Amino acid sequence: MRVKAGYWLVLFSTALAALVVILGAYTRLVDAGLGCPDWPGCYGFLTVPESSVDVAKANLRFPETPVESAKGWPEMIHRYLAGTLGLFILMIAVVAFRQNKQDNSYPIKLPFFLLVLVVIQAAFGMWTVTLKLWPQVVLAHLIGGFTTLSLLFLLLLRLRVSRENTSQQNNSKSYASNLFKYKVLARIGLVIVVIQIMLGGWTSSNYAAIACMDFPTCHDSYWPEMDFSQGFNIFQQIGPNYLGGVMDSNARTAIHMAHRIGAVITALFLCYMCFSLMRVKLENLEKVNQQYINNWAITILSILIVQLSLGISNIVWFIPLPVAVAHNACGALLLISLVGLNYQLYKIGKASPILQRSI
């Protein structure tokens, strides 16, 4: 595999972004989101105060939130890792700027968009703390993290000089029509996964994961009493401390059930999409391209099975921390797999003159 300049830097940054996303989930799940009540420091220090003198000073500054080192460290490690990721993305932008001067095909817009995104993410990280885990901001911060990871992965794919066959494409109308159909399916699959991740983020930020602790029923009913209007009220008042959530049981049940229904829709659609993609070999795709598409389809199906198992395990075993963190990590894997599949189909379609005209 040949790669362009900056590939290994982007690869490391993608791995770091995945670590930041996973650690962010861990921080949220152990209720450490307010482990440091100020930002960017922690009780006015660069790290979590540990000595008795520093702890006394910290408690004097923030008497309502006394120091808890076990919650402070996950938050501060997450902040420092996120800051390091920001520096790496800055380096990626510098490399892209220099390379684009020599080769105008080198990606330039995506690295600079990532740079803007990571600055916005820093702002949401600050508001997550200063607005005391306001669910809207927590959700936006989570989506921003997943977006950063996905775009870094997309950039990674663009810096590969891979061996896909783009020189001997089948230019028949049936080929173009089928490829267009699968591109549409893949895009819909990506949108569905994004919506499901947002529902998961809303579930987590409102502490609704424990709203139903039986499966497949909820409160011994397939359609329990729910309050969707409150559960999805995005105009919640800013002001209270949202640690632990403020919604009543019916509202949280509505959020939880929406996430379950979303999981069913996601699973059904992705299964249909993947099995349809694996049948595409009947429609004259070149062997190399067929292999790539099959690999992505199998990967997505495998991650989907694991993700559904983790989701059910969360309910049956009362949200064990390792399983809950893995559920977040699998969500990120599923998302970047859909990004990879869409990019693969885009590359194949780009080489088809008939498909280009049909679009």
TrEMBL record:
Pathway stated in the Swiss-Prot or TrEMBL entry: Porphyrin-containing compound metabolism
Main location: membrane
Entry-linked InterPro entries: COX15/CtaA_fam, COX15/CtaA_HemeA_synthase
Keywords: Cell membrane, Disulfide bond, Heme biosynthesis, Iron, Membrane, Metal-binding, Oxidoreductase, Transmembrane, Transmembrane helix
Compartments reported by the entry: Membrane
Topology in membrane: Multi-pass membrane protein
Pfam families: COX15-CtaA
Transmembrane parts of this sequence: 7-26, 77-98, 110-131, 137-159, 180-199, 257-275, 296-319, 325-346
Name this polypeptide is given: COX15/CtaA family protein
Species in which this protein is naturally found: Spartinivicinus poritis
